[in-house]
Amino acid sequence: MLKINESKRCYMPKSKSSSSKTPASKSPAGQTSKYPHVKVYSTPTCPYCHMAKDYLKANNVPFEDINVAADEKAADEMQKKTGQLGVPVIEIGNTIIVGFDKDAINEALKLKPKAAS
Fold it and tell me: Quick check: is 23 in a domain?
């Protein structure tokens, strides 16, 4: 399933350099997460990417952070999955969310929305 939030996404820069995949959050060794595998395709300069990753961290959701500005292969993979170059792309199991969309993330992860602060 592909969900796109047109207003909360950035476009990838054209230049790409060396590979960069870093896990931003991990489950303790030997434990399995209660959530499906989560990948966040992002760029370092995208504010919506930072918001999405901060939201996942605040909800203790482990995810793999993939910097598509530095990893051409990952950028190509992301584009094949979504048909576009907008970031963040959040892959939660079989659900792909383009842009930062709390409601779609909550639905895909079965999270209860937190009260506004």
Answer: no
Structural domain including 54 reads 2-11+40-109
Rounded to whole angstroms, the Cα distance separating 111 from 117 reads 17
Q: How far apart are CA 70 and CA 2, in angstroms?
A: 24
* pLDDT tens profile 21-45: 444 444 444 456 789 999 999 999 9
Residue 81 lies in a domain: yes
Asked if residue 116 is part of any domain, the answer here is no
Task: Say yes or no to pLDDT of 20 above 50.
Answer: no
- Is 31 a member of any domain? no
Token readout for 43 is 């760029």
Structural contact between residues 65 and 23, judged by C-beta atoms closer than 8 angstroms: yes
Q: State whether residue 57 is helix, strand or coil.
A: helix
C-alpha–C-alpha distance, residues 58 and 23, integer Å: 16
Provide the CATH number for the domain around residue 48.
3.40.30.10
Across 83-95, b (16+ Cβ under 10 Å) vs e yields eebbbbbbbbeeb
